[in-house]
Amino acid sequence: MISKNQMKLIRSLELKKNRKSEQLFVAEGPKVVGDLLQAGFLPHSVFATTAWPGSQQITEEELRRISFLQHPQEVLAVFHMPAATESLPLPTSLALALDGVQDPGNVGTIIRIADWFGIDTVYCSADTADVYNPKVVQATMGSIAHVHIVYCDLLELLQQVSCPVYGTLLDGKNIYEQELSQQGIIVMGNEGNGISAAVREHITHRLLIPNYHAGDHRAESLNVAIATAITCAEFRRRR
């Protein structure tokens, strides 16, 4: 049986301020929890409706009461956040940077995309959705365990690097006709406003994903996660 205090702690971690003060976050489902454990994330507590190593057994009803999912998946774990790095790590290969991407589903999906295309580091501006938001964690489908997430001042980062800085912009050049390096930073912008003006000044290579629709009535833009997938795929195709 799960205690009231345990339940209260778990539910409180839906809020960023509580995650930050407790330095804890929630992960759910065998895939996500299993990947985090395998990657060496330190569990604070594990609750499961079936046999699960080191878990506290709970009923399905109790799991529904603590879960953030519409359809709970067998196991829920509370993990300690990894210690933040003191210095800002600079990219040594291809990296992503998220400039104010605020939708948790988009952030989680982009982390999953980075994992798929072998991009080990994702830099995030302070106003990007918190990677430890339960919705972000779930959307990564375990990739949060494989990708290094760094929250930082993007301007400070871009001022320090000497590698190419790519950005997808409406006034960019066709991505399929440009030279693309396997070392650099790909900046993806906010869902509504795109890349901020200050960050845009540091873009050295402006890229455009062309629209192939010939009619007047067409989509104005791509979802940022879809645009990230297309961009990463083209970079890796050149490798």
Explain what you see.
The chain is of the alpha/beta class. The chain is built from nine helices and ten strands. It has helices spanning 4-12, 16-22, 30-38, 60-66, 104-116, 134-140, 154-160, 197-200, 224-237, and strands at residues 24-28, 43-48, 56-57, 75-80, 94-99, 121-124, 148-151, 165-174, 184-189, 205-208. Helix 5 links the parallel strand 5 and strand 6 (121-124). The N and C termini lie far apart (53 Å).
Q: What shape does the CA trace take? A: elongated
**Biggest sheet overview:** 6 strands, parallel
Order of H and E elements: HHEHEEHEEHEHEHEEHEH
Q: Gap between N and C termini, in Å?
A: 53 Å
What's the β-strand tally? 10
The proportion of strand residues reads 15-25%
Order of strands across the widest beta sheet? Answer: 7-6-5-9-8-10
Separate helix tally:
9
Give unreliable regions as ranges: none
Cα-atom Rg, whole angstroms? 20 Å
Structural class: alpha/beta
Average pLDDT reading: 93
- The level of helicity is 25-40%
